Amino acid sequence: MSRIEIDNLTKRYRTGSGDDILAVEDLSLDLADGEFLVLVGPSGCGKSTTLRCIAGLEPVSGGEIRFGDADVTDRTPEERNVAMVFQNYALYPHMTARGNMAFGLRMTTDLSKEERNERVESAARMLGIEDLLDDKPKELSGGQQQRVALGRAIVRKPEVFLMDEPLSNLDAKLRTTMRTEIQRLQSDLGVTTVYVTHDQTEAMTMGDRIAVLDGGELQQVGTPLECYYEPANLFVANFIGEPSMNFFETEVAGDALVGDAIRYELSGDHLDAVAESERVTLGVRPEDVEIAETRRDAFAGTVRVVEPMGDQNFLHLDVGGVDVTAAVAGEYEVREGANVMVRFPEAKIHLFDADSGEVLANCRRHSAQLPTATGTGGEAA
Question: Distance (Å, rounded) from C-alpha 202 to C-alpha 198?
């Protein structure tokens, strides 16, 4: 286990024309010992490059990487004591699951065959694949192959786990199961982990913290709920959350935001937040859009598409020419073409400077605690 410090990491690639491609720019992150950090962002944002730099597979163009008190910036992958799980599993087809899991130990340690087998069998029990150790990869399902790849990393007893989109080849149901499995394993092992994904749902459900990247630059780092409820800028607000946040382009006119689709009256802190701005983007998440019964403080919309999700319906509305998504309870039957009134409660809106994209005000979030059971005998008092 190890703390990871990344200071001003920069990675450039040379091209045939002599121009540089800046893949990662001035990235700084600090991971606590045993922390699970998810790097998330769209394709080409620099997340996998960052992971490869941490692993030592890519030389850095600038900055430092430290594991604990040791500067590992110029160390080889073998000298960093990291274990990496890849998107394509990278299993040797001619070896059994046991052989694949033990291969790294055989090549890089002085452990005896008996000691290697003991580690492999212990990891296999942890992963529930002890009955598959004599099978070859072609005899295993995608999920079983993923467990073998995880087992190969676990037996190394590394200081750091690095995972590069390890679930992207699995079907939706298995991905959900494996998300839980990886979280449990990481928690049990307590190994500092950096996990790369483009899937914001994985990021939100798995990480202690998430680091959102775009264009090689860090946009925000924080807990999943901080990034969801308190996005630092328009990019994070749009990227985190499914369906994504609704946006209205407006201009500040006295006490109101005025756009082609809406006129929205502001008060209190929200009014103070836009005092220095001329153009403001108003954002509201789908679950915060209310279906109103009256026209008071509401806007007319027409239902274009209804997406039934079971517990929820996603209504895709046309509000003054702007596409708006609203999440309503699944018990409501809504027909396409229906005219509805929608309201955006002021406590739930987000405001961004339209020019810089930086946040001006976020929604007011109220924390709540689940009730806990008391008493004995497994019954709540």
Answer: 8
Considering 70-84, 155-169, 210-224, 295-309, the range whose residues carry the highest mean pLDDT is: 210-224
**Whole-angstrom Cα distance, residue 134 to residue 323?**
55
Same domain as 224, residue 266? no
- Which CATH number belongs to the domain containing residue 315 in this structure? 2.40.50.140
- Take residue 165 and report the two structure tokens written for it: 């989109």
Q: What is the pLDDT of residues 50-67, one digit of tens each?
A: 999 999 999 999 999 999
Same domain, 21 and 136: yes
**Is the whole-model pTM more than 0.70?**
yes
Segment 241-282, tens digit of pLDDT = 999 999 999 999 999 999 998 999 999 999 999 999 999 999
Alpha carbons 95 and 369: distance in angstroms, whole number: 50
Q: List phi, psi (to 5°) of 257.
A: -105, 125
Domain of 258, in residue numbers: 246-361
Does 304 share its domain with 198?
no
CATH value at residue 109: 3.40.50.300
The reply to whether 225 and 251 lie within a common domain is no
Q: How far apart are the first and last CA of the chain?
A: 41
Instruction: Find out whether 111 and 85 touch, Cβ atoms under 8 Å.
Output: no
- pLDDT confidence of residue 168: 84
Other C-beta atoms closer than 10 Å to the C-beta of 215 total 15
Are residues 268 and 178 part of one domain? no
In this structure, the answer to whether residues 90 and 193 fall within a common structural domain is yes
CA 246 to chain centre: 20
Q: Are 359 and 351 within 8 A, CB to CB?
A: yes
